[in-house]
Design a protein that fits this description.
Layout lengths: L14 H6 L10 E8 L6 E2 L7 E3 L4 H10 L4 E7 L8 H4 L4 H12 L5 E6 L12 E3 L2 E3 H18 L3 E4 L6 H11 L6 E8 L6 H7 L18 H13 L4 E5 L5 H10 L4 E5 L1 H12 L5 H15 L3 E4 L2 H9 L1
Parallel strand pairs: 1-3, 1-4, 1-12, 4-5, 5-8, 8-9, 9-10, 10-11, 11-12
Antiparallel strand pairs: 2-3, 6-7
Bound molecules: zinc ion.
The site of zinc ion (ZN) has 5 residues, from loops.
Length: 325
């Protein structure tokens, strides 16, 4: 038997052949761009740990979303920073809350079409800055569910397309689905932070959103990164509760869990490439040690290759500009 002359380099000979053979293609359509809107802000504000990402005053939100839509990015994810915090996070579910006002403004004034997603959590809105309500020295699961439900319904009333609970409370998807359905919002989808890990890669986000916990840490509700089986139980539980899209968070250090979710479940998967992943790239690029655009494309393509259908990422604009040429 003659030895076949296998030469895989034939398929890498020139750019057009390489393009034909691309197995995974990142598209602007895969991207969800996070936006931070702050209630008491007069003008845009930079945060040192997340270069080029700004906190926006309400008056700049529509312009910002228009510029994101112009880059062919199909969705935004809104985070709010309220002027006042209290024990129960009233500003998170108030009709006049900053996120609710931002959603209605975008709905009313946007030139083009974009999917509006919004974070559903308490950490930016309570004095304790935990993702759930505090009772004594504990984070109370079941009383938090009622508040998460109220937040989701208030965002639905403002016109959100997708609510994205990130509190990691047991039963949050079921409670929110019930709340939305009871209020007539059966068409508002839930993209839950299903497997959200206790990660040190969130630090720049905490600077951005003023939400570092005032006591203890988030280890009693966020997943330990040592437990992939438990992560899959979280995903499975959310599916049983009626979630529409599951999320793995962070992304880059958790590609195995994205792949495992892909092979185990028939459900759309989002991955959240978090603030620390962004800042690592920006910091190294600023030093001239890596190429920002090249690394952005490599990292986001890897997240898609692992099995994500969509990626929430602060790199959205860099990726879109690169993809749009
Ligand atoms: Zn939170």
């Amino acid at each position: 038997m003659s030895f076949p002359n296998v030469r895989l380099r034939r398929l890498r000979k020139n750019k057009k052949i390489r393009e034909l053979l691309e197995e995974v293609r990142l598209s602007t359509k895969d991207l969800i761009c996070p936006i931070f809107v702050q209630e008491d802000l007069k003008s845009r504000m930079q945060v040192e740990s997340m270069p080029d990402i700004e906190r926006l005053p309400l008056k700049d939100v529509v312009d910002e979303v228009n510029s994101i839509a112009d880059l062919k990015i199909p969705a935004i994810m809104l985070f709010g920073i309220p002027a006042k915090k209290d024990d129960i996070g009233t500003a998170a579910f108030s009709e006049n809350g900053i996120v609710q006002r931002a959603i209605s403004e975008i709905r009313k004034s946007l030139d083009s079409e974009i999917a509006i997603m919004a974070d559903v959590c308490l950490c930016q809105y309570t004095t304790a800055a935990h993702c759930g309500l505090v009772k004594g020295d504990k984070i109370d699961n079941d009383s938090t569910l009622d508040v998460l439900k109220k937040i989701a319904v208030s965002q639905a009333q403002a016109g959100v397309d997708v609510v994205s609970p990130s509190a990691m409370m047991d039963g949050q998807v079921k409670a929110i689905r019930q709340g939305l359905d009871d209020s007539g919002f059966t068409d508002v989808a839930i993209m839950s932070h299903s497997a959200k890990h206790r990660s040190s890669l969130y630090s720049p986000f905490r600077d951005m959103a003023h939400c570092a916990p005032k006591f203890s840490d988030r280890k009693t509700y966020q997943l330990p990164y040592t437990n992939p089986t438990e992560a899959m139980r979280e995903v499975e539980t959310d599916i049983l509760e009626g979630v529409d899209i599951v999320m793995i968070k962070p992304a880059l250090a958790y590609l195995d869990l994205i792949a495992k979710t892909r092979s185990s479940f028939n459900i759309p998967i989002s991955a959240y490439s978090v603030s620390g992943e962004y800042s690592l790239i920006k910091a190294a690029a600023k030093q001239g040690w890596i190429d920002e655009r090249e690394v952005t494309m490599e990292v986001l393509t890897a997240i898609k290759r692992a099995g994500a259908d969509m990626i929430v990422t602060y790199l959205s604009k860099i990726a879109a500009k690169t993809l749009n040429g």
